[in-house]
Amino acid sequence: MSDLYVTGTSMPDVQSAIEAKLQADPSIDAVVTLGAPYADTAVKAREGAGSKAEIDTFDLNAKVAAGLADDSLGFAVDQQPYLQGYQAVDLLWLYKYNGDVLGGGKPVLTGPQIITEDQADELAEYTERGTR
Amino acid sequence: MSTLAPDERLLRVSPLRKLLGRPELGSVVGALAVFVFFAFAADSFLRASSLSTVLYASSTIGIMAVPVALLMIGGEFDLSAGVMVTSSALVSSMFSYQMTANVWVGVGVSLLVTLAIGAFNGFMLTRTKLPSFIITLGTFLMLTGMNLGFTKLIDGTVSTKTIADMEGFPAARDVFASTLTVGDVNFKITILWWFGLVAVASWILLRTRAGNWIFAVGGNQDAARAVGVPVAKTKIGLYMGVAFGAWISGQHLLFSYDVVQSGEGVGNELIYIIAAVIGGCLITGGYGSAAGSAVGALIFGMTSKGIVFAEWNPDWFKFFLGAMLLLATLLNAWVRKRAEATT
């Protein structure tokens, strides 16, 4: 496994850097991007480099959901940031209002969820509105 | 009896020296050195497909480096150039989407809006007489805020909605973001845009009156005004040139990825300036060339991608990048100095 740093504020740079890496080492069989916006760019880089590597990503957006559905992406690790924010406030309110404690006082996991082609279609609606 | 030394202006200078003394040709030596270096350091660098990747990376910098170089020859900076590309893409995308219009309408509106931003930069500069560094820093920050603010306001998220299924998209993608296959190698169309811009900018600089004005306002603004050069018009024109480049880059961004991330572009303004300076533009103005900016962009593209091709430890990427650029530019400066020496 090896790292590749890209200039995240410049998509063409991201694309050409991933393309260069895939061309330099044809044995690479998977690319994992650390942010949803870069997944589709990695797919383009894969095309440009003529590579067969699987592209996977952290995080989710509408484009990633579409990529999972059409099989250009393998899986997405969704840490459910909306839940991370919303659930904490909800738990706090329940505690203040009702003295409720969820999860027996232990950490309540809000994710992550591994998303593949199977769940992609039902997610389209939520990713479009930006809550997933 | 001592003989007088002949006037230096009458000295015969060998054509090779003259050639090397041109602003861009000093940097060509640096580019060649970087090329030869990576040809040896990275096995995969010399493949046609790899060179096409390098050319693509260089072209996306080069398209903006050309007008930025002209602006620098004219003695000014534009710190808003990086985010202006994103603004241009956002305007085009959101206008088409919200109006459900043919994407070409958005492209046209985007051209007008982007040119207006450029004109605003130039107008503010010539009216207030503040340094361009301050004026365009203001524009840079305002555009960064507007990119995010408007995108969140209109689309609810930090990126735009896809316009890939809209009318006119395929044609616009052909113009701004297509891939041309020569033999069995794919070349991005941005390379053609880049070469085209270099040719047009070189013609303007070297063959037109406006070109003389650009050198004059960058060399000595007051003297230029005294001999009747329209200083304000020239500078506003130069800023609109940068805006035009931002429009091309922005449309490439949009039609290449069909969604636009509102936070993009920050930091690129420096890379455009770097390309222009490596290519022989003086930071103080009055000297430089359009072709030089292209060579500068090529050096930057070759170095940043060459390090990946060479598979050096990525943790040290920025160090290698800095060291290589420094060495290439030192070589440029050394060649130019040797070439300009008359004896």
UniProtKB/TrEMBL annotation, chain B:
GO terms for molecular function: transmembrane transporter activity. It is found in: Cell membrane. It is a multi-pass membrane protein. One of its GO terms (cellular component) is plasma membrane. Pfam families: BPD_transp_2 (PF02653). It comes from the Bacteria. CDD domains: TM_PBP1_transp_AraH_like. The chain crosses the membrane at residues 25-42, 54-72, 103-123, 130-150, 185-206, 270-287, 316-335. InterPro entries: ABC_transp_permease. Keywords: Cell inner membrane, Cell membrane, Membrane, Sugar transport, Transmembrane, Transmembrane helix, Transport. Part of the binding-protein-dependent transport system for D-xylose. Probably responsible for the translocation of the substrate across the membrane. This is Xylose transport system permease protein XylH.
